[in-house]
Design goal:
The chain is of the alpha+beta class and 279 residues long. Helices cover 39% and strands 19% of the residues. The chain contains nine helices and ten strands.
């Protein structure tokens, strides 16, 4: 398969509409339709169910969408890392979620700067799910990720810190005085729905909860009594007096990991990872 075909298919699979996909790709619709049909014939599978009303992915199409995204990320990463390797500016780009692992990040940057031969570290603060994408497509050299929310498959990683999760509620909520709350009970708080975070393609899943982009927005919605959220315990430091926090013992523990491409030969990345594991 060619990268051009994969880009065509990803556009159609994400839009589920040939017209919108063609517009996104800046091309006419007929050649796009023919390209997808030729791809299906060559693979010997049906990738899309087509009807007069809608387009849906087949199981084979869902697999190709997942694999095509990874393949296109790998191609982009190869281009970006090759150009950066030829640049005269030594440095390393670290991606992390804004507001997450703040204390750890501060300690890491301070400790690494004191190392002999340390280079400049550009920190990219971004939204949930974005550090993983930036690392896969080559925009970042290393990232702080958080299992189970981020996928670390395909990366080399070192575990740095594991913590439990808490539910953040508006101050004065009836559950605020509890010693702990089970996750099932949190999920039944219909008057305080859990937030909806955007997916990789920028779309939001269906549900009653408010759409959020970052923790600042989320915590303001909670203070207004419009949502609750289950978050790592370390985020307590970002809360105000109009929030209440209760442990959720059966919520999955969150592990912060430092991740990098397995084929990386960057001394700066190796030194940064070594510093992180020492901390």
């Amino acid at each position: 398969m060619e990268t051009r075909e994969l880009r065509y298919f990803v556009a159609v699979a994400e839009e589920l509409h040939f017209g919108r996909a063609a517009q996104r790709l800046a091309m006419a619709q007929p050649p796009l339709s023919r390209a997808i049909q030729q791809l299906e014939r060559r693979l010997g599978v049906v990738l899309l169910h087509r009807s007069s009303r809608a387009i849906t992915l087949t199981e084979a199409g869902a697999v190709l969408l997942r694999e095509a995204r990874l393949a296109l990320d790998a191609v982009e990463a190869a281009e970006r890392r090759t150009r950066r390797a030829a640049a005269d500016r030594p440095g390393v780009v670290l991606a992390t979620k804004a507001g997450a692992s703040s204390e750890l990040l501060s300690k890491l940057l301070h400790a690494y700067a004191a190392e002999p031969g340390a280079v400049a570290v550009e920190v990219m603060l971004c939204g949930p799910g974005q550090p993983e994408s930036l690392l896969r497509n080559g925009r970042a050299d290393v990232a702080l990720l958080h299992r189970p929310y981020d996928t670390t498959a395909g990366f080399d990683t070192e575990d740095l810190h594991t913590e439990q999760q808490v539910v953040v509620l508006p101050a004065g909520h009836p559950l605020a005085n509890r010693a702990h709350v089970p996750l099932a009970e949190v999920n039944t708080l219909t008057n305080l729905p859990l937030p909806r975070w955007p997916g990789r393609d920028g779309s939001y899943p269906d549900g009653p909860g408010p759409q959020v982009r970052d923790h600042t927005q989320l915590f303001q919605l909670i203070a207004l009594g419009l949502a609750c959220a289950v978050v790592p315990e370390s985020l307590r430091t970002q809360l105000r007096d109009d929030h209440a926090v209760v442990p959720v013992p059966d919520a999955p523990a969150v592990t912060t990991v430092i991740a990098w491409p397995p084929h990386s030969r960057s001394k700066a990345v190796a030194d940064l990872v070594h510093t992180a594991t020492r901390l």
